Amino acid sequence: MQFNFKYDTGRQGLLALLKDYEGGSLKVMWENPGKQFLSREVLEAVNVRLGDKKTISRASIINFLEKMRKTGILKGEERTGRGGHHWIYSPAMSDAEFKQYIARTILENLMRDFPEETAEAVKKIKPVFS
């Protein structure tokens, strides 16, 4: 399954692709390499990051984590514990790998739909390192 997203050119960074709580969820995991997370832990960390601005429901976090797991951006392991079954999540991609995935996906789609125009536009982009 592929991660389908909309890229909002009016926003920057992860916020161009993700809602604030979604980007916060991934950042929490990337900042703690090797750690596995319950949805509750992600929820608590994201709500701290959001501060008094707003809070997010656990259902929103679970739905996002599951979407990321099903698309291969996160890994998940189902476990049985108090209260029944639950998932433990960890990154399947690093922050850099995720950003490369997004850039590659956008460019591949542009090359598919507008090959000549995309190739010409890429040639006109100033190199970051010169």
Give a brief description.
By secondary structure, this protein is α+β, with helices and mostly antiparallel strands. The protein is 49% helix and 14% strand.
Question: How would you explain this protein's 3D organization?
Answer:
The protein is α+β, with helices and mostly antiparallel strands and 130 residues long. It has a domain at 13-92: Arc Repressor Mutant, subunit A, CATH 1.10.10.10. 49% of the residues lie in helices and 14% in strands. It contains five helices and three strands. Strands 1-3-2 form a three-stranded antiparallel β-sheet. The longest helix has 19 residues, at 95-113. The radius of gyration is 17 Å and the shape is elongated.
Outline the secondary-structure elements:
Blueprint (H helix, E strand, L loop, with lengths): L19 H11 L6 E2 H12 L7 H13 L3 E8 L2 E8 L3 H19 L1 H9 L7
Antiparallel strand pairs: 1-3, 2-3
Helix pairs in contact: 1-2, 2-3, 4-5
